[in-house]
Write a structure and sequence with these properties.
- Among the domains are: 189-350, Alpha-Beta Complex (Isoleucyl-tRNA Synthetase, domain 2), CATH 3.90.740.10; 542-719, Isoleucyl-tRNA Synthetase, Domain 1, CATH 1.10.730; 750-871, no CATH class.
- It is built from 27 helices and 29 strands.
- Strands 7, 8, 9, 10, 11, 12 and 13 form a 7-stranded mixed beta sheet that branches. Strands 6-5-14-16 form a 4-stranded antiparallel beta sheet. The protein has a 4-stranded mixed beta sheet with strand order 27-26-29-28, with helices on both faces.
- Helix 3 (84-97) packs across helix 4, helix 19 packs antiparallel against helix 20 and helix 20 runs antiparallel to helix 21 (667-684).
- The longest helix is centred in the last third of the chain and has 29 residues, at 843-871.
- The protein is globular and about 110 Å long.
- It starts with 8 loop residues before the first helix and ends with a helix.
- 38% of the residues are buried.
């Protein structure tokens, strides 16, 4: 196979992805091997690839490719989420642009438009993932509203309802006035908002005096049904047993007493609006107060808003402020910053609202899910997220699972003509139940299905089970083989939405954890630390990035900056670093394959040394990688392989074995080098799948269908740590000689002599001579006059200079360095003579200072000796 002079990522990537697909190398079926399973966090069906997807799916691909190369039966299940709120909003916007109102369509007509949208846009993000190299089993692609998943969701709803865990009732919910639906607490994002605190005057009935209330939402006074004071607050004791009059609308409301009121906040008086505040709702229930809902679903005021009916809530706030001011009913206003809830999906301010909704009781099903994470049956990486998880699970609230939308799984609840509800998987099954329940004649057409659909997360919480059809067919071969899955890779922002709920579903429906490990990625931010977003325009297009730097380059660039749970500060220069590494691998391969092999050439001693040394370094690195992967430290794993290839293999090994210009290489060295290259490509493959496949195929003759993807990861052999340590000393000697060349401006082609004063292991002398271009290495008792030396450990190495240096210039430079070293030694000794520092600093810091002292003393002695030699 011919290798071109330059690496062309686009050509290589398209070719090999097609090859993998044609040979079904991503596909998995149950067999006798150990399974390794990952389910993709299903991206929204309306979505396009962004940098968060890139990071998340790169990590999944690394894990699944490595598992495949460990001989496991790896299965990565892809799919998309129907995303009720986001998709419905896009479809509504599209229809609006065409002059069509959702309200003018029947449910069936609207759903027809939604399905058209889904079929048009739905597969886009999965196609984009292929460009990244994602090795998903595309034959298993799922969609949360396909037939199997839909059937699973409805079956679970009916089951939980029959177990008494699902109920319907009027509760205070988070209402999204734009999407016109209830939201769960987890779908509300709290942001700090700069607003005003309004001090309003409520006249005391029958008196000329006022009670003053501080509020951030004066428009809600229309819904006030009480004023509340703390029973022990002397400042407000004068209000006990009295009534006050709501400003502008003159409704008389009672003053109630409850310890809930914060005596220190505001005036000590609290207006109670049970229909529009969660805490007020609790007070309303406790004291049997009426609830007056003043808002329409779209955030405008209804007829209970009196003269402000029909106005938007924020416009009404401005108008009420003016009217209260004119009526002399505002005592003062203050600037005030408070946290306000916003809809995660539409970014509008949510309204607390009393609404009839469906809820799932969470307390009982949460317990096994909490225990599983607490006892590390399911491990979090990083473990810090256990605290976040525990706090939420211990304070869990019932889950509002209904949404006032059409796009989604319609709730399988059917209302009877004379009241009551029947829950069934289909209308026909509900009708059969109804016939056994009611004592009056009904037809199937008399049943009216609930208009709401289920929260999108109510389908995705079943994902690790439903992708294998484990709800409908709980004992099928796929679910028995692939479940529980091994790893989940996701963002910490959906730890409650999705991770916790999947764990609950796993214990409820499989009595087992749904995965063994959760790897939490960080958030991808720009170089300034800002979260990437369309609004800021700071997010690069991933497809363009891959076209520019290659998929392998982008994968590497992202991972180098990302450790589990930590945010990634993305800089395109990281992708350039990735691309440069690709070029390094490519050029190293071309160098090796370009050598002529001569069977009659004997193996040089330097090559024997290099092969022995690198073989040990390779084995040691394989052991390190296994440890890093077991701890999910993937960024460190990549950096470890990167250094192995760039530093040890390219900069040292290849230089040690490289034949002289236009000279052949011996067959033993060549075969060893190809074998090392093969191992390096296999270690790199999970991180950089495309270039490694291209070069692995070119490394030798391959059969059709063969792939590095299914080649085994290299195994470590016994590591000679002593040999590696000894060779590190050899590297230091070579580096010392190269430094002298640099400092003295001696060309690399000029041969030098090396003098050794002290103990020296001469096993690697041939390597030193080759890498440093030496004519001789001589053990002596005293170095030559004018020789320039350096220390490695306690052994001195020196290069006789002869006429190679300018004595005056060299003396000046050495004296300047000596002056600096003596000053530095004084500062270190001053620190070490400080008793407080020695006693209080960490032992390793003190030890480091002592090492600096010893090293600097040695350097000073060497400099003085060199100066003396030059001056004589």
């Amino acid at each position: 196979m011919e290798i071109s002079s330059k690496y062309n990522p686009a050509e290589v990537e398209d070719k090999w992805y097609k090859y993998w697909m044609e040979n079904k190398l991503f596909h998995s079926e149950p067999d006798e091997r150990e399974p390794y399973t990952i389910v993709i966090p299903p991206p929204n069906v309306t979505g396009i690839l962004h940098m968060g997807h890139m990071l998340n799916n790169t990590i999944q691909d690394i894990l699944v490719r490595r598992a495949r190369m460990e001989g496991k039966n790896a299965c990565w299940v892809p799919g998309t989420d129907h995303a009720s709120i986001a998709t419905e909003a896009k479809v509504v916007a599209k229809l609006t642009s065409e002059g069509i109102k959702k309200s003018d369509l029947t449910r069936e007509e609207f759903l027809s438009h939604a399905w058209d949208w889904t079929h048009k846009h739905g597969g886009m993000i999965l196609e984009q993932l292929k460009k990244l190299g994602a090795s998903c089993d595309w034959d298993r692609t799922c969609f949360t509203m396909d037939e199997v998943r839909s059937e699973s969701v409805i079956k679970v709803f009916v089951d939980l309802y029959n177990k008494g865990l699902i109920y319907r009732g009027v509760r205070m919910v988070n209402w999204d006035p734009q999407a016109l639906t209830a939201l769960s607490d987890e779908e509300v994002v709290h942001k700090e908002v700069n607003g005003k605190l309004y001090y309003l005057r409520y006249r005391i009935e029958g008196e000329e005096a006022y009670a003053v209330v501080a509020t951030t939402r004066p428009e809600t006074i229309m819904g006030d049904t009480a004023m509340c004071i703390h029973p022990d607050n002397p400042k407000t004791a004068y209000l006990k047993g009295k009534k006050v009059i709501v400003p502008l609308i003159n409704r008389v409301i009672p003053v109630i007493e409850d310890e809930y009121v914060d005596m220190e906040f505001g005036t000590g008086c609290l207006k109670v609006t049970p229909a529009h505040d969660v805490n007020d709702y609790v007070l309303g229930e406790k004291y049997n107060l009426p609830s007056i809902d003043i808002f329409n679903d779209n955030g405008t005021l209804n007829e209970s808003g009196a003269m402000y009916a029909g106005m938007d809530r924020f416009d009404a706030r401005k108008k009420i402020e003016i009217d209260l001011e004119n009526a002399g009913l505002i005592e003062k206003t203050e600037s005030y910053t408070n946290k306000v809830g916003f809809s995660e999906r539409t970014n509008v301010v949510i309204e607390p609202k009393l609404s009839m909704q469906w809820f799932l009781k969470m307390e009982d099903i949460a317990k096994p899910a909490l225990d599983a994470v607490e006892n590390d049956t399911i491990k979090f990486h990083p473990a810090k997220y256990k605290n976040t998880y525990r706090h939420w699970m211990e304070n869990i609230k019932d889950w509002c699972i209904s949404r006032q939308l059409w796009w989604g799984h319609r709730i399988p609840a059917y209302y009877l003509p004379k009241g009551g509800v029947i829950v069934g998987e289909t209308k026909e099954k509900a009708y059969e139940k109804a016939l056994q329940t009611v004592d009056y004649p009904i037809s199937i057409d008399d049943l009216r299905q609930d208009e709401d659909c289920l929260d999108t997360w109510f389908s995705s919480w079943l994902w690790p089970i439903s992708v294998f059809d484990g709800i409908n067919n709980p004992d099928n071969p796929d679910i028995d083989y692939y479940y529980p899955t091994n790893d989940l890779v996701t963002g910490p922002d959906i730890i409650f939405f999705w991770v916790a709920r999947m764990i609950m579903a796993g214990y409820e429906y499989r009595q087992a954890p749904c995965f063994g490990n959760v790897y939490f990625t960080g958030i991808v931010r720009d170089i300034q630390g800002r979260k990437m977003s369309k609004q800021l325009g700071n997010s690069p297009d991933p497809i363009e990035l891959m076209e520019k730097h290659g998929a392998d380059g982008v994968r590497m660039g992202m991972l180098l900056a990302s450790s589990a749970g930590n945010d990634l500060l993305f800089d395109e220069s990281l992708c350039e670093q990735g691309r440069n590494f690709n070029n390094k691998i490519w050029n190293a391969f071309r160098l090796v394959k370009g050598w002529e092999v001569n069977n009659g050439t004997g193996q040089p001693e330097t090559a024997k040394i290099a092969i022995s040394w690198f073989g040990n370094v390779l084995s040691k690195t394989i052991v390190e990688l296994e440890d890093l992967f077991s701890k999910y430290r993937l960024s460190e794993a990549l950096m470890t392989v990167y250094k192995l290839f760039w530093d040890e293999f390219s900069s040292w090994y290849l230089e040690l074995i490289k034949p002289a210009y236009q000279q052949p290489v011996d067959p033993a060295t060549y075969e060893a080098t190809l074998s090392f290259f093969d191992s390096l490509l296999r270690l790199l493959h999970p991180f950089m799948p495309f270039i490694t496949e291209e070069l692995w195929q070119a490394l030798g003759e391959r059969k059709p269908g063969e792939s590095i993807m299914i080649a085994r990861q290299p195994k470590a052999t016994t590591v000679d740590e002593e040999l590696i340590a000894d060779f590190e000393i050899t590297k230091q000697i070579i580096a010392g000689i190269r430094t002298i060349r640099l400092q003295k401006n001696i060309p690399g082609k000029d041969e030098l002599e090396l003098q050794v004063i002290g103990n020296h292991d001469n096993r690697f002398d041939s390597a030193i001579a080759k890498m440093a271009n030496l004519s001789s290495i001589e053990n002596i008792t005293e170095k030559s006059e004018g020789a320039v030396g350096f220390l490695v450990g306690t052994t001195e190495f020196a290069i006789p200079m002869g006429d190679k240096i300018d004595v005056e210039a060299e003396l000046k430079k050495m004296k300047t360095e000596l002056e600096y070293c003596e000053g530095f030694l004084q500062s270190v000794m001053k620190k070490l003579s400080n008793e407080r520092f020695v006693q209080n600093a960490k032992p390793e810091i003190v030890e480091n200072e002592r090492k600096k002292q010893a090293d600097t003393k040695s350097k000073i002695a060497l400099l003085k000796e060199s100066i003396k030699a030059l001056e004589q």
